Amino acid sequence: RYDTLVKERQTIYKSLCATRRDRIDELRGGKDTFFELVAKLQHSEAERNEQGRLAQLTKLASEDIKKEFRKPTEFPDGSVNSIIMDAETDFGEDDHG
Fold first, then answer.
1. Which of 16, 48, 63, 91 places its Cα 20 to 30 Å from the Cα of 75?
2. Cβ distance 4 to 11 under 8 Å?
3. Total Cβ atoms within 10 A of residue 10
């Protein structure tokens, strides 16, 4: 019985190790690692400019989405309200006077 349990444990450990290796390989995936990206940013002005441009485009896109989410939306229960409510949300007339 003990030998069977030891073999079973070894099988599980091998499987876990393989799964871990698979996850690491998936993270690498032939793409750049985080440290390689940082090194590129440190040494390449063109890379910094490109990443800055992409970050700015992402920021602009997120601002557009926020504007859309601040517009009144009709929900399935029939209520109408903004999806996002924050300091920039226009609530219409202010009843709190």
1. 63
2. no
3. 10
- The one-digit pLDDT tens for each residue of the chain (97 residues) are 888 888 988 888 777 777 777 777 776 666 677 778 888 889 999 999 999 999 999 999 999 998 888 888 888 898 888 887 777 776 666 555 4
Q: How many residues does the chain have?
A: 97
Question: Hey, what amino acid is at 71?
Answer: K
Q: What is the DSSP string of the chain?
A: -HHHHHHHHHHHHHHHHHHHHHHHHHHHTTS--HHHHHHHHHH-HHHHHHHHHHHHHHHHHHHHHHHHHHSEEE-TTS-EEESS-STT---SS----
Q: Is pTM beyond 0.85 here?
A: no
